[in-house]
Amino acid sequence: MFYSPLEQFQILPLLSLGVGLFDFSMTNAMVTTCVGLAFFVFIYYCLSVYGLSCFPTRWQLVLESLYLSTAGLVWDSVGQQGQKYFPFLFVIFSFILISNVSGLVPYSFTITSHLIQTMVLALTVFIGVMIICASKHGFHMLSLFLPGGTSMVLAFLLVPIEIVSYVFKPLSLAVRLFANMMAGHTLLKVIAGFAWAMMGSGGLLLIAHIVPLAVLVILFGLELAVALIQAYVFTILSCIYINDAIVLH
């Protein structure tokens, strides 16, 4: 049983395995990550075995909804030039969405509530954006840090500011997802612990514990919406960064 709202974020070894100085233990974070990655194996298996039906099943409707949502997002944000990056953005969106939603299952683990995990995702997007920009524009990509029509006097002030803001893009992308997921799950644990303590006290508090339970149900629905919104926000910001790399804006 967890007694602290923050203990739910501890990475715990499920199977200890070490070779010399290297630790290959299987942790709850690793299992959750594998579950998220197994989703794409499941998609490939379903498409290769069953294909697509003119009369879609429930699973096909879910997959088509994810596909159309991501495709529309990429088209609106990047346009025709960004269609080649659709598979990458679809994987990012689906993985974050599955990780966020699976973390709402009781006694599960939310990998997106750890800054290291969200930072890896953000750096993956950021490095990819830099590669796209460098391959498309070469050294001309440095014009990102100097807006057009800027005088030499202002250049000494604006260039450092633009460089700092550009470098902090992956940090803001990672912290936004991490902070929202961690705060929401912490709040759910606090309310649940409060309701459990009232129920264990007996008497009138045993009846009154229905109030925090009702609040918990509402917050759970809100956290589900946050899980969907944060996956959407992460993906749309990734699309915006890719579009900026393409048009050099």
From TrEMBL:
Entry GO terms, CC: mitochondrial inner membrane; proton-transporting ATP synthase complex
Main location: mitochondrion
Gene of this entry: atp6
Protein's recorded name: ATP synthase subunit a
Subcellular location, record wording: Mitochondrion inner membrane
PROSITE patterns, per database record: ATPASE_A
Recorded topology in the membrane: Multi-pass membrane protein
Family matches, as PANTHER family: ATP SYNTHASE SUBUNIT A
Similarity annotation: Belongs to the ATPase A chain family.
Alphabetized GO MF terms: proton-transporting ATP synthase activity, rotational mechanism
